[in-house]
Design brief:
single chain, alpha/beta, 2 domains, three-stranded antiparallel β-sheet, 12 strands
Length: about 475
Protein backbone atom coordinates (compact mmCIF):
# COMPACT_ATOMS: atom_id res chain seq x y z
CA UNK A 1 0.00 0.00 0.00
CA UNK A 2 2.82 2.41 0.82
CA UNK A 3 4.38 1.96 -2.64
CA UNK A 4 1.11 2.93 -4.30
CA UNK A 5 0.70 5.87 -1.97
CA UNK A 6 4.20 7.14 -2.75
CA UNK A 7 3.60 6.71 -6.47
CA UNK A 8 0.44 8.80 -6.57
CA UNK A 9 1.77 11.38 -4.10
CA UNK A 10 4.74 12.39 -6.30
CA UNK A 11 4.51 16.07 -7.10
CA UNK A 12 5.54 16.19 -10.74
CA UNK A 13 3.87 19.54 -11.39
CA UNK A 14 5.48 22.91 -10.62
CA UNK A 15 4.21 24.56 -7.39
CA UNK A 16 2.65 27.38 -9.41
CA UNK A 17 0.50 24.89 -11.32
CA UNK A 18 -0.38 22.90 -8.22
CA UNK A 19 -1.95 26.01 -6.69
CA UNK A 20 -4.35 26.18 -9.64
CA UNK A 21 -5.31 22.49 -9.67
CA UNK A 22 -8.94 21.74 -8.91
CA UNK A 23 -9.82 18.16 -8.13
CA UNK A 24 -13.17 16.50 -8.48
CA UNK A 25 -14.74 13.75 -6.38
CA UNK A 26 -15.88 10.54 -8.01
CA UNK A 27 -17.49 7.40 -6.63
CA UNK A 28 -17.15 3.91 -8.07
CA UNK A 29 -19.33 1.10 -6.81
CA UNK A 30 -17.69 -2.33 -6.47
CA UNK A 31 -18.85 -5.90 -5.90
CA UNK A 32 -17.31 -9.36 -5.82
CA UNK A 33 -18.59 -12.81 -6.79
CA UNK A 34 -17.27 -16.07 -5.31
CA UNK A 35 -15.81 -13.68 -2.76
CA UNK A 36 -13.82 -16.10 -0.55
CA UNK A 37 -11.54 -14.05 1.69
CA UNK A 38 -12.89 -10.77 0.21
CA UNK A 39 -9.36 -9.55 -0.45
CA UNK A 40 -10.82 -7.35 -3.18
CA UNK A 41 -12.24 -5.16 -0.40
CA UNK A 42 -8.71 -4.28 0.74
CA UNK A 43 -7.54 -3.74 -2.84
CA UNK A 44 -10.27 -1.12 -3.24
CA UNK A 45 -9.23 0.41 0.08
CA UNK A 46 -5.65 0.78 -1.16
CA UNK A 47 -6.81 2.37 -4.39
CA UNK A 48 -9.19 4.77 -2.62
CA UNK A 49 -6.48 5.77 -0.18
CA UNK A 50 -3.95 6.35 -2.93
CA UNK A 51 -6.29 8.64 -4.84
CA UNK A 52 -7.19 10.49 -1.63
CA UNK A 53 -3.54 11.12 -0.72
CA UNK A 54 -2.63 12.11 -4.27
CA UNK A 55 -5.69 14.15 -5.21
CA UNK A 56 -3.66 17.26 -6.05
CA UNK A 57 -1.47 15.28 -8.45
CA UNK A 58 -4.24 13.13 -9.91
CA UNK A 59 -6.74 15.93 -10.27
CA UNK A 60 -9.50 13.83 -8.73
CA UNK A 61 -10.47 12.13 -5.52
CA UNK A 62 -11.86 8.66 -5.98
CA UNK A 63 -13.85 6.71 -3.42
CA UNK A 64 -15.05 3.13 -3.64
CA UNK A 65 -18.45 1.91 -2.47
CA UNK A 66 -18.62 -1.82 -1.80
CA UNK A 67 -22.16 -2.85 -2.71
CA UNK A 68 -22.22 -6.60 -2.15
CA UNK A 69 -20.37 -9.92 -1.99
CA UNK A 70 -21.52 -13.39 -3.02
CA UNK A 71 -20.36 -16.55 -1.25
CA UNK A 72 -22.06 -19.91 -0.63
CA UNK A 73 -19.81 -21.28 2.15
CA UNK A 74 -21.25 -20.32 5.55
CA UNK A 75 -17.91 -19.93 7.36
CA UNK A 76 -16.57 -17.77 4.55
CA UNK A 77 -19.74 -15.69 4.72
CA UNK A 78 -18.91 -15.01 8.38
CA UNK A 79 -15.33 -14.08 7.41
CA UNK A 80 -16.63 -11.60 4.82
CA UNK A 81 -19.12 -10.17 7.30
CA UNK A 82 -16.29 -9.67 9.80
CA UNK A 83 -14.21 -7.87 7.16
CA UNK A 84 -17.09 -5.56 6.23
CA UNK A 85 -17.98 -4.90 9.87
CA UNK A 86 -14.37 -4.05 10.74
CA UNK A 87 -14.08 -1.76 7.72
CA UNK A 88 -10.85 -0.33 6.28
CA UNK A 89 -7.56 -1.38 7.87
CA UNK A 90 -5.58 1.81 7.56
CA UNK A 91 -7.61 4.23 9.73
CA UNK A 92 -6.88 2.00 12.72
CA UNK A 93 -3.21 1.68 11.85
CA UNK A 94 -2.18 5.10 10.61
CA UNK A 95 -2.40 8.76 11.70
CA UNK A 96 -3.63 9.49 8.16
CA UNK A 97 -7.16 8.57 9.16
CA UNK A 98 -8.42 11.92 7.90
CA UNK A 99 -7.51 10.87 4.37
CA UNK A 100 -10.64 8.71 4.42
CA UNK A 101 -12.93 11.54 5.42
CA UNK A 102 -14.65 13.73 2.90
CA UNK A 103 -15.65 17.31 3.56
CA UNK A 104 -19.06 16.11 4.74
CA UNK A 105 -17.63 13.35 6.90
CA UNK A 106 -18.43 10.40 4.64
CA UNK A 107 -16.03 7.47 4.61
CA UNK A 108 -13.94 7.07 1.47
CA UNK A 109 -14.64 3.33 1.47
CA UNK A 110 -18.34 2.83 1.91
CA UNK A 111 -20.13 -0.51 2.03
CA UNK A 112 -23.76 -1.53 1.89
CA UNK A 113 -23.05 -4.97 3.27
CA UNK A 114 -25.21 -7.51 1.41
CA UNK A 115 -23.77 -11.02 1.10
CA UNK A 116 -25.75 -13.05 -1.40
CA UNK A 117 -25.91 -16.82 -1.01
CA UNK A 118 -26.23 -18.15 -4.57
CA UNK A 119 -24.50 -16.72 -7.63
CA UNK A 120 -27.05 -18.40 -9.91
CA UNK A 121 -29.79 -16.07 -8.59
CA UNK A 122 -28.00 -12.78 -9.28
CA UNK A 123 -29.46 -12.37 -12.75
CA UNK A 124 -32.77 -11.40 -11.15
CA UNK A 125 -33.93 -8.27 -9.38
CA UNK A 126 -33.74 -9.85 -5.91
CA UNK A 127 -31.70 -12.61 -4.26
CA UNK A 128 -31.43 -14.11 -0.78
CA UNK A 129 -29.05 -12.11 1.44
CA UNK A 130 -27.57 -13.91 4.46
CA UNK A 131 -26.86 -10.63 6.28
CA UNK A 132 -30.45 -9.41 6.30
CA UNK A 133 -32.06 -12.86 6.16
CA UNK A 134 -34.41 -11.94 3.33
CA UNK A 135 -34.60 -11.18 -0.36
CA UNK A 136 -32.62 -8.01 -1.09
CA UNK A 137 -32.41 -6.02 -4.33
CA UNK A 138 -29.45 -7.05 -6.50
CA UNK A 139 -27.69 -3.78 -7.39
CA UNK A 140 -25.60 -3.00 -10.40
CA UNK A 141 -22.00 -1.86 -9.93
CA UNK A 142 -19.24 -0.02 -11.74
CA UNK A 143 -16.50 -2.57 -11.07
CA UNK A 144 -17.09 -6.32 -10.67
CA UNK A 145 -14.39 -8.75 -9.47
CA UNK A 146 -14.85 -12.51 -9.77
CA UNK A 147 -12.46 -15.34 -8.93
CA UNK A 148 -14.41 -18.07 -10.67
CA UNK A 149 -14.87 -21.70 -9.64
CA UNK A 150 -11.87 -23.66 -10.89
CA UNK A 151 -12.32 -27.25 -9.69
CA UNK A 152 -13.35 -28.52 -13.12
CA UNK A 153 -10.45 -26.75 -14.84
CA UNK A 154 -7.51 -27.03 -12.43
CA UNK A 155 -4.61 -29.24 -13.50
CA UNK A 156 -4.14 -30.16 -9.84
CA UNK A 157 -7.53 -31.88 -9.84
CA UNK A 158 -7.44 -35.48 -11.17
CA UNK A 159 -11.12 -35.11 -12.10
CA UNK A 160 -10.52 -31.98 -14.17
CA UNK A 161 -12.53 -31.46 -17.33
CA UNK A 162 -10.07 -29.30 -19.24
CA UNK A 163 -10.78 -31.27 -22.40
CA UNK A 164 -14.44 -30.29 -22.29
CA UNK A 165 -16.16 -27.00 -22.97
CA UNK A 166 -17.27 -26.70 -19.34
CA UNK A 167 -18.82 -23.28 -19.91
CA UNK A 168 -21.16 -24.76 -22.52
CA UNK A 169 -22.55 -27.29 -20.01
CA UNK A 170 -25.57 -26.50 -17.87
CA UNK A 171 -23.79 -27.89 -14.79
CA UNK A 172 -20.51 -29.56 -13.88
CA UNK A 173 -19.21 -31.70 -11.03
CA UNK A 174 -17.07 -28.92 -9.54
CA UNK A 175 -19.70 -26.18 -10.16
CA UNK A 176 -17.54 -24.23 -12.66
CA UNK A 177 -20.40 -24.29 -15.18
CA UNK A 178 -22.96 -23.11 -12.62
CA UNK A 179 -20.66 -20.28 -11.49
CA UNK A 180 -20.10 -19.24 -15.10
CA UNK A 181 -23.82 -19.08 -15.88
CA UNK A 182 -24.53 -17.15 -12.68
CA UNK A 183 -21.76 -14.67 -13.48
CA UNK A 184 -22.85 -14.09 -17.08
CA UNK A 185 -26.51 -13.78 -16.06
CA UNK A 186 -25.53 -11.02 -13.61
CA UNK A 187 -23.49 -9.23 -16.29
CA UNK A 188 -26.36 -9.51 -18.78
CA UNK A 189 -28.91 -8.16 -16.29
CA UNK A 190 -26.90 -5.43 -14.55
CA UNK A 191 -24.13 -4.42 -17.01
CA UNK A 192 -21.19 -3.55 -14.71
CA UNK A 193 -18.83 -1.02 -16.27
CA UNK A 194 -15.62 -2.99 -15.62
CA UNK A 195 -15.22 -6.73 -15.06
CA UNK A 196 -12.07 -8.38 -13.71
CA UNK A 197 -12.23 -12.17 -14.07
CA UNK A 198 -9.68 -14.67 -12.67
CA UNK A 199 -9.39 -18.45 -13.08
CA UNK A 200 -6.72 -21.16 -13.51
CA UNK A 201 -4.43 -22.07 -16.39
CA UNK A 202 -6.73 -24.87 -17.52
CA UNK A 203 -9.06 -22.16 -18.78
CA UNK A 204 -6.69 -21.65 -21.73
CA UNK A 205 -6.22 -25.31 -22.74
CA UNK A 206 -7.05 -25.96 -26.38
CA UNK A 207 -9.92 -28.38 -26.97
CA UNK A 208 -10.82 -30.35 -30.07
CA UNK A 209 -9.86 -29.99 -33.71
CA UNK A 210 -10.68 -26.28 -33.83
CA UNK A 211 -8.19 -25.51 -31.02
CA UNK A 212 -10.61 -23.44 -29.00
CA UNK A 213 -10.69 -23.12 -25.22
CA UNK A 214 -13.09 -22.30 -22.41
CA UNK A 215 -11.46 -18.84 -22.41
CA UNK A 216 -12.62 -18.39 -26.02
CA UNK A 217 -16.16 -19.31 -24.95
CA UNK A 218 -16.01 -16.73 -22.15
CA UNK A 219 -14.64 -13.97 -24.37
CA UNK A 220 -17.25 -14.63 -27.05
CA UNK A 221 -20.03 -14.46 -24.45
CA UNK A 222 -18.70 -11.15 -23.12
CA UNK A 223 -18.46 -9.80 -26.66
CA UNK A 224 -22.10 -10.74 -27.29
CA UNK A 225 -23.01 -8.88 -24.09
CA UNK A 226 -21.40 -5.71 -25.48
CA UNK A 227 -17.97 -5.92 -23.81
CA UNK A 228 -14.46 -5.79 -25.18
CA UNK A 229 -11.57 -7.22 -23.22
CA UNK A 230 -8.06 -8.52 -23.04
CA UNK A 231 -6.74 -11.71 -21.42
CA UNK A 232 -3.39 -11.67 -19.66
CA UNK A 233 -1.30 -14.24 -17.79
CA UNK A 234 0.36 -13.18 -14.56
CA UNK A 235 2.79 -14.59 -12.00
CA UNK A 236 2.41 -13.27 -8.46
CA UNK A 237 6.17 -13.45 -7.85
CA UNK A 238 6.60 -10.72 -10.49
CA UNK A 239 4.39 -8.39 -8.41
CA UNK A 240 6.38 -8.53 -5.16
CA UNK A 241 4.94 -11.67 -3.55
CA UNK A 242 7.27 -14.41 -2.23
CA UNK A 243 5.30 -17.19 -3.95
CA UNK A 244 4.50 -18.18 -7.50
CA UNK A 245 0.92 -18.08 -8.72
CA UNK A 246 0.43 -18.37 -12.46
CA UNK A 247 -3.07 -17.17 -13.26
CA UNK A 248 -4.93 -15.96 -16.34
CA UNK A 249 -6.95 -12.77 -15.87
CA UNK A 250 -9.50 -11.30 -18.21
CA UNK A 251 -10.16 -7.58 -17.97
CA UNK A 252 -13.44 -6.59 -19.58
CA UNK A 253 -14.45 -3.00 -19.86
CA UNK A 254 -11.21 -12.33 -13.42
CA UNK A 255 -9.53 -17.24 -7.79
CA UNK A 256 -10.64 -19.06 -7.46
CA UNK A 257 -13.78 -20.50 -6.03
CA UNK A 258 -14.13 -20.67 -2.29
CA UNK A 259 -15.30 -24.24 -2.73
CA UNK A 260 -12.74 -25.10 -5.40
CA UNK A 261 -11.06 -27.87 -3.46
CA UNK A 262 -13.18 -28.62 -0.44
CA UNK A 263 -12.38 -32.31 -0.81
CA UNK A 264 -8.94 -33.83 -1.18
CA UNK A 265 -8.47 -35.67 -4.49
CA UNK A 266 -8.58 -39.42 -4.21
CA UNK A 267 -5.22 -41.08 -4.54
CA UNK A 268 -4.82 -43.27 -7.59
CA UNK A 269 -3.56 -46.61 -6.36
CA UNK A 270 -1.85 -47.62 -3.15
CA UNK A 271 0.56 -44.93 -1.86
CA UNK A 272 2.98 -47.55 -0.48
CA UNK A 273 3.30 -49.13 -3.94
CA UNK A 274 3.90 -45.72 -5.48
CA UNK A 275 6.55 -44.88 -2.90
CA UNK A 276 8.32 -48.21 -3.45
CA UNK A 277 8.45 -47.63 -7.21
CA UNK A 278 9.67 -44.06 -6.69
CA UNK A 279 12.43 -45.17 -4.31
CA UNK A 280 13.52 -47.91 -6.72
CA UNK A 281 13.68 -45.45 -9.63
CA UNK A 282 15.80 -43.07 -7.54
CA UNK A 283 18.13 -45.83 -6.34
CA UNK A 284 16.94 -45.41 -2.75
CA UNK A 285 16.20 -48.03 -0.17
CA UNK A 286 12.52 -47.76 0.66
CA UNK A 287 11.30 -48.54 4.16
CA UNK A 288 14.53 -47.73 5.97
CA UNK A 289 14.28 -46.01 9.35
CA UNK A 290 14.09 -42.22 9.34
CA UNK A 291 17.22 -40.26 10.27
CA UNK A 292 17.41 -38.97 13.83
CA UNK A 293 17.09 -35.28 12.84
CA UNK A 294 13.48 -35.32 11.55
CA UNK A 295 12.33 -37.66 14.33
CA UNK A 296 13.46 -35.07 16.90
CA UNK A 297 11.47 -32.34 15.12
CA UNK A 298 8.04 -31.99 16.80
CA UNK A 299 6.50 -30.91 13.48
CA UNK A 300 7.53 -34.22 11.91
CA UNK A 301 5.41 -36.05 14.46
CA UNK A 302 2.27 -34.20 13.32
CA UNK A 303 2.50 -35.78 9.85
CA UNK A 304 0.81 -39.01 8.85
CA UNK A 305 2.91 -42.04 7.91
CA UNK A 306 2.36 -41.29 4.21
CA UNK A 307 3.40 -37.64 4.63
CA UNK A 308 6.50 -38.61 6.63
CA UNK A 309 7.44 -41.02 3.86
CA UNK A 310 6.92 -38.35 1.18
CA UNK A 311 9.12 -35.92 3.13
CA UNK A 312 11.93 -38.46 3.52
CA UNK A 313 11.88 -39.46 -0.17
CA UNK A 314 11.72 -35.82 -1.29
CA UNK A 315 14.73 -34.95 0.87
CA UNK A 316 16.68 -37.84 -0.60
CA UNK A 317 15.84 -36.83 -4.16
CA UNK A 318 16.21 -33.03 -3.78
CA UNK A 319 18.14 -32.20 -0.60
CA UNK A 320 18.41 -28.49 -1.47
CA UNK A 321 14.69 -27.85 -2.00
CA UNK A 322 13.40 -25.02 0.18
CA UNK A 323 9.71 -25.99 0.20
CA UNK A 324 8.03 -29.41 0.20
CA UNK A 325 4.26 -29.76 -0.06
CA UNK A 326 3.87 -33.17 1.57
CA UNK A 327 0.12 -33.20 0.87
CA UNK A 328 0.92 -33.71 -2.81
CA UNK A 329 1.99 -36.82 -4.71
CA UNK A 330 5.70 -37.59 -5.07
CA UNK A 331 5.86 -36.00 -8.50
CA UNK A 332 4.56 -32.67 -7.16
CA UNK A 333 5.99 -32.48 -3.65
CA UNK A 334 8.80 -30.05 -4.49
CA UNK A 335 9.69 -27.64 -7.28
CA UNK A 336 12.64 -25.41 -8.06
CA UNK A 337 12.44 -22.44 -5.70
CA UNK A 338 15.64 -20.49 -6.39
CA UNK A 339 15.07 -17.55 -8.75
CA UNK A 340 18.11 -17.23 -11.02
CA UNK A 341 17.57 -13.50 -11.60
CA UNK A 342 17.25 -12.36 -7.98
CA UNK A 343 19.11 -15.26 -6.29
CA UNK A 344 16.20 -15.43 -3.85
CA UNK A 345 13.85 -18.25 -2.95
CA UNK A 346 10.30 -18.15 -4.30
CA UNK A 347 7.66 -20.36 -2.72
CA UNK A 348 5.41 -22.56 -4.84
CA UNK A 349 1.76 -21.77 -5.46
CA UNK A 350 -0.37 -21.76 -2.32
CA UNK A 351 -2.91 -24.60 -2.61
CA UNK A 352 -6.04 -25.54 -0.64
CA UNK A 353 -5.26 -28.27 1.88
CA UNK A 354 -1.51 -27.83 1.50
CA UNK A 355 1.05 -29.02 4.05
CA UNK A 356 4.04 -26.93 3.06
CA UNK A 357 7.17 -27.98 4.92
CA UNK A 358 9.60 -25.05 5.17
CA UNK A 359 13.22 -26.17 4.97
CA UNK A 360 14.56 -22.60 5.00
CA UNK A 361 13.78 -22.03 8.69
CA UNK A 362 15.61 -23.78 11.50
CA UNK A 363 14.31 -26.10 12.69
CA UNK A 364 12.16 -26.86 9.63
CA UNK A 365 8.41 -26.66 10.18
CA UNK A 366 5.05 -26.46 8.44
CA UNK A 367 3.83 -23.13 7.05
CA UNK A 368 1.14 -21.56 9.22
CA UNK A 369 -2.23 -20.57 7.79
CA UNK A 370 -1.69 -16.84 8.44
CA UNK A 371 1.67 -17.04 6.67
CA UNK A 372 -0.05 -18.60 3.65
CA UNK A 373 -2.49 -15.67 3.52
CA UNK A 374 0.42 -13.23 3.72
CA UNK A 375 2.05 -15.03 0.79
CA UNK A 376 -1.08 -14.07 -1.19
CA UNK A 377 -0.77 -10.44 -0.14
CA UNK A 378 -3.74 -10.62 2.25
CA UNK A 379 -3.20 -8.44 5.38
CA UNK A 380 -3.98 -11.30 7.77
CA UNK A 381 -2.39 -9.96 11.01
CA UNK A 382 -4.10 -6.57 10.71
CA UNK A 383 -7.46 -8.13 9.84
CA UNK A 384 -7.36 -10.65 12.71
CA UNK A 385 -6.28 -7.90 15.11
CA UNK A 386 -9.30 -5.83 14.06
CA UNK A 387 -11.57 -8.85 14.54
CA UNK A 388 -10.29 -9.04 18.12
CA UNK A 389 -10.44 -5.32 18.93
CA UNK A 390 -13.89 -4.88 17.35
CA UNK A 391 -15.23 -7.78 19.40
CA UNK A 392 -16.37 -9.83 16.40
CA UNK A 393 -17.99 -13.08 17.59
CA UNK A 394 -15.96 -15.97 16.15
CA UNK A 395 -18.47 -18.57 17.32
CA UNK A 396 -21.62 -19.41 15.43
CA UNK A 397 -24.83 -19.26 17.42
CA UNK A 398 -26.35 -22.69 17.88
CA UNK A 399 -30.10 -23.20 17.83
CA UNK A 400 -30.09 -23.53 21.61
CA UNK A 401 -28.11 -20.34 22.04
CA UNK A 402 -30.27 -18.26 19.73
CA UNK A 403 -33.14 -18.06 22.24
CA UNK A 404 -33.44 -15.90 25.31
CA UNK A 405 -31.81 -18.53 27.52
CA UNK A 406 -28.37 -19.84 26.60
CA UNK A 407 -27.63 -23.38 27.67
CA UNK A 408 -24.57 -24.09 29.73
CA UNK A 409 -23.07 -26.21 27.00
CA UNK A 410 -20.73 -23.33 26.19
CA UNK A 411 -20.25 -21.34 22.99
CA UNK A 412 -21.18 -22.72 19.59
CA UNK A 413 -18.78 -24.08 17.02
CA UNK A 414 -15.87 -21.77 16.23
CA UNK A 415 -15.96 -20.70 12.59
CA UNK A 416 -12.68 -18.75 12.53
CA UNK A 417 -10.35 -21.75 12.41
CA UNK A 418 -6.92 -22.52 10.97
CA UNK A 419 -8.63 -24.88 8.53
CA UNK A 420 -10.79 -22.04 7.16
CA UNK A 421 -7.84 -19.65 6.95
CA UNK A 422 -5.73 -22.22 5.10
CA UNK A 423 -8.56 -22.90 2.65
CA UNK A 424 -9.01 -19.17 2.01
CA UNK A 425 -5.27 -18.80 1.40
CA UNK A 426 -5.22 -21.65 -1.09
CA UNK A 427 -8.12 -20.21 -3.07
CA UNK A 428 -7.35 -16.48 -2.77
CA UNK A 429 -6.35 -14.14 -5.54
CA UNK A 430 -2.85 -12.68 -5.39
CA UNK A 431 -3.87 -9.22 -4.19
CA UNK A 432 -0.95 -7.19 -5.63
CA UNK A 433 -1.81 -8.63 -9.06
CA UNK A 434 -5.47 -7.72 -8.64
CA UNK A 435 -4.45 -4.24 -7.45
CA UNK A 436 -2.27 -3.68 -10.52
CA UNK A 437 -5.02 -4.78 -12.91
CA UNK A 438 -7.79 -2.78 -11.23
CA UNK A 439 -5.52 0.26 -10.93
CA UNK A 440 -4.76 0.08 -14.66
CA UNK A 441 -8.44 -0.30 -15.51
CA UNK A 442 -9.47 2.66 -13.34
CA UNK A 443 -6.62 4.81 -14.69
CA UNK A 444 -7.89 4.21 -18.23
CA UNK A 445 -11.31 5.66 -17.42
CA UNK A 446 -12.21 9.16 -18.54
CA UNK A 447 -13.58 11.03 -15.53
CA UNK A 448 -15.47 14.27 -15.79
CA UNK A 449 -17.35 16.30 -13.18
CA UNK A 450 -21.11 15.95 -12.85
CA UNK A 451 -23.13 18.17 -15.16
CA UNK A 452 -26.83 18.78 -15.53
CA UNK A 453 -28.45 16.53 -18.11
CA UNK A 454 -30.49 18.24 -20.81
CA UNK A 455 -34.25 17.81 -20.64
CA UNK A 456 -36.22 16.30 -23.51
CA UNK A 457 -37.67 19.72 -24.33
CA UNK A 458 -34.22 21.34 -24.43
CA UNK A 459 -32.93 18.60 -26.72
CA UNK A 460 -35.92 19.05 -29.04
CA UNK A 461 -35.34 22.83 -29.16
CA UNK A 462 -31.65 22.32 -29.98
CA UNK A 463 -32.43 19.86 -32.78
CA UNK A 464 -35.07 22.22 -34.16
CA UNK A 465 -32.56 25.08 -34.17
CA UNK A 466 -30.01 22.91 -35.98
CA UNK A 467 -32.65 22.08 -38.59
CA UNK A 468 -33.41 25.75 -39.17
CA UNK A 469 -29.70 26.54 -39.52
CA UNK A 470 -29.29 23.71 -42.02
CA UNK A 471 -32.04 25.22 -44.21
CA UNK A 472 -30.43 28.66 -44.34
Amino acid sequence: MSLLERAVSRRDRPPAQLAEVKYFRFHLSTASLVSGSEGAFYVMEALSRAYSLGKETCGCRLSMKHFFSCESNKDKQRWIQAALNCGPLMPALSPLKSAYESSDGDSELLQLGCIFQDIETLGGCEAHCVVHGKLCPVPGCDLLVIGSSCEDLSKANPRKETQKFVFQQSNSLGSSAQTYHGFTSYVAAHSPGLVTYENVGGLEEQIGAHAQSNLDVLMQTMKELGYSGQPLRTDASSFGLPARRLKPFLEERKEKSAKAASKSPKSSGNCADQHMKFAEAEGLRWGQTYPQEPKLNPWFGTLTAREQDVLALSRAQAPDAGFRNVSQSLGRVHTASLCKDTKKRVAPTMLPGQLLFLELVKPPRLMLDQEALLFQGFPAPQFLKLVETEGIDVYECSAAASGSVRKRSGPGRKWLTESLTADLAGNAMALPVLLAIVQSAVASLLFRPDSRASTREETADALSALGILADL
